[in-house]
Design brief:
- With about 130 residues, the chain is mainly alpha-helical.
- The chain has a domain of about 80 residues.
- About 55% of the residues lie in helices and about 10% in strands.
- The chain is built from 5 helices and 4 strands, in the order E-E-H-H-E-E-H-H-H.
- The strands form 2 sheets. The protein has a two-stranded antiparallel sheet with strand order 1-2.
- It is extended.
- The protein starts with a strand and ends in a 12-residue tail after the last helix.
- InterPro entries: Myb/SANT-like_dom.
- Pfam families: Myb_DNA-bind_3.
- This is Myb/SANT-like domain-containing protein.
Length: about 130
């Protein structure tokens, strides 16, 4: 039960924060500096964006098979994109979705703060001298 606890309500999983040791953080940073890992992360994010786009277009995600599901008509409508996603497993969608939702929420909050600052009336004094 690593990182999950039970809240007593229908045996529902509850997220618990994970504390990283300095050695774990150092290992993560060293790993993330390698080109192979950076390329793999970019590849995962490209696939995530494609899957997310399809879900916005009315497709569904089957959590048992970890695949995007749609009708033949839907697949034909997104033909070039459909070829690289159809019948492929993407088990990382739930976790990447959590990360990206958090990222979108942070960006939305930042945009809201910027718009509030732009919309705030500027207070200034105007001095007019009459000769």
């Amino acid at each position: 039960m690593d990182r999950f606890g039970r809240n007593g309500v229908g045996n529902v999983a509850v997220r618990r924060p994970v504390r990283w040791s300095r050695d774990e953080e150092r290992a993560l940073i060293e790993c993330s500096e390698t080109t192979a890992i950076q390329n793999h992360l970019r590849s995962l994010m490209r696939m995530y964006k494609k899957v997310h786009y399809l879900l916005e277009q009315g497709f569904t995600f089957d959590v048992e098979t970890n695949q995007v599901v749609g009708t033949d008509e839907q697949w034909n409508a997104v033909e070039p994109l459909g070829r690289c996603v159809r019948n492929r497993e993407f088990p990382h969608l739930p976790k990447l979705d959590e990360i990206m939702i958090y990222k979108r929420q942070q960006e939305a909050a930042r945009n809201d703060r910027e718009h509030e600052q732009e919309a705030a009336p500027m207070e200034c004094e105007i001095f007019i001298e009459f000769a």
